Amino acid sequence: MAADPLLKWREEFPILSRKTYLINNSLGPMPRRVYDGLKHFADMWNDRGVVAWHDPPEDNWLHECEEVAGLIGSVMGAPRGSVMLHLNVATLTAQVLSSINFSGRRNRIVYDDMQFTSPHYVCQQWTRYGAELTIVKSDDRIGVDVQKLVDAIDDRTAIVPISHVYFRSAYLQDVKPIIEKAHKVGAKVLLDVYQSIGTVPFNVTDLNVDYAVGGSVKWVCGGPNVCYLYVRPDLMPGYKPALTGWISHARPFKFEMEFEPAADAWRISTGTPPVVALYSVRPGYEIIRQVGLDKIREKSVRLTTHLFEKAGEAGFKVNSPADPNRRGGTVCIDFANAEEAHHDLIRRGYVVDYRPGGGIRVSPHFFNTKEECDAILAEMKKLRKA
Ligand SMILES: Cc1ncc(COP(=O)(O)O)c(C=O)c1O
């Protein structure tokens, strides 16, 4: 069999020579070029001091915010100027909700009980501002029937904040009918793409989604605190969040007391942007673009299908979808002592994590091999208590 051309990328990620790294849906491995990026940040600070914020024109901190936002946008089909950076998804969810008036009849937030906790907790807190939650239940704790979600969206719905791929099971939601229904009744959709970006190809423009939110630490192999919000360009002029700050102003360096939102994506920002972190994410996004999402997805489906089948044959409970078209990049494998076993796996050099109700999340990426998937399954069989 011909050698897998994607394996040449392994040398870009030093940890892969020391560990069986299969937790790419939680924290991707660090690209070696991140050392250069972070050193460059330190050199800019040390050599130029405060001037590094804006000088020289092509290599300064504010410019880098726009460049990295543009790069992230390019991975999800967002036009330049429609994305801006933030610390985390929780804050961005709060920001989007803060742009909506929940005091009237249209006060419903519709989502499901498989969502990540950050946006869920924020939505719960928004009931203090008049929001009413409609939470659709999963029947099998793996996926959520898209028709149930579509039916729950009505003319009282303000926003539908849902994940593209569910963190606990890797269920890949069919978001198109949800977006279409929301638009039909005048509601908006906030799509959390954190678990899909870098492993499942998608295009926010083609999806016609209103907002998309996510971060950089998972499949795109970046460091923490470079999260982002995409606002559909035609919605940008009307996007007026209450959660704002000095750098969102049309003229931030004039420090005017009257607030006027920036005309461009800076209005999504709040206060000082996550500058240090910026320099830890560029190599990962660049590598993902170079490898190509179609190739990444093709390999992901191949490896997750292999894992799914072999885990089933070995008698493990698999809490991920059987249908590869409804599965993101992860296979969640459960057994009675799975939580305890995942610590042993890490001690033995197999890097994975465990989520209650999901199991051990095994998430191969383009640089992983079938042999690594077989090896972790063999190790789990040894660790499983009857
Ligand atoms: C779907 C999803 N959304 C968001 C997050 C992270 O949220 P935050 O940026 O608030 O930590 C995660 C996991 O870390 C996730 O899996």
Could you walk me through the main structural features you see in this protein, from its secondary elements to its overall organization?
The protein is of the alpha/beta class and 386 residues long. It is built from twelve helices and 13 strands. Helix 5 packs parallel to helix 6. The structure holds pyridoxal-5'-phosphate. The site of pyridoxal-5'-phosphate has 12 residues, from helix 3.
| Bound ligands, named by name, code or SMILES | pyridoxal-5'-phosphate
Largest sheet: 7 strands, mixed
Termini gap: 37 Å
Number of helical segments with 4 or more residues: 12
Secondary structure tally: strands: 13
Question: Which CATH C-level class of the largest domain is it?
Answer: Alpha Beta
CATH-scheme architecture of the largest domain:
3-Layer(aba) Sandwich
Structural class: alpha/beta
Overall mean pLDDT: 97
The SSE order reads EHHEHEHEHEHEHEEHHHEEHEEEH
Features:
386 residues; alpha/beta; Aspartate Aminotransferase, domain 1; Aspartate Aminotransferase, domain 2; 2 domains; 7-stranded mixed sheet; 4-stranded antiparallel sheet; 12 helices; 33% helix; globular; binds pyridoxal-5'-phosphate
Describe the secondary structure blueprint for this structure.
Elements: E1 20-21, H1 34-48, H2 61-75, E2 83-86, H3 89-97, E3 108-112, H4 117-125, E4 132-136, H5 146-152, E5 157-163, H6 175-184, E6 188-192, H7 204-207, E7 211-214, E8 227-231, H8 275-278, H9 282-291, H10 293-313, E9 317-318, E10 331-334, H11 338-347, E11 350-351, E12 353-355, E13 359-362, H12 370-383
Parallel strand pairs: 1-11, 3-4, 3-5, 5-6, 6-7
Antiparallel strand pairs: 2-8, 7-8, 9-10, 10-13, 12-13
The protein binds pyridoxal-5'-phosphate.
Residues 88-90, 116, 118, 163, 167, 192, 194-195, 215, 227 line the site of pyridoxal-5'-phosphate.
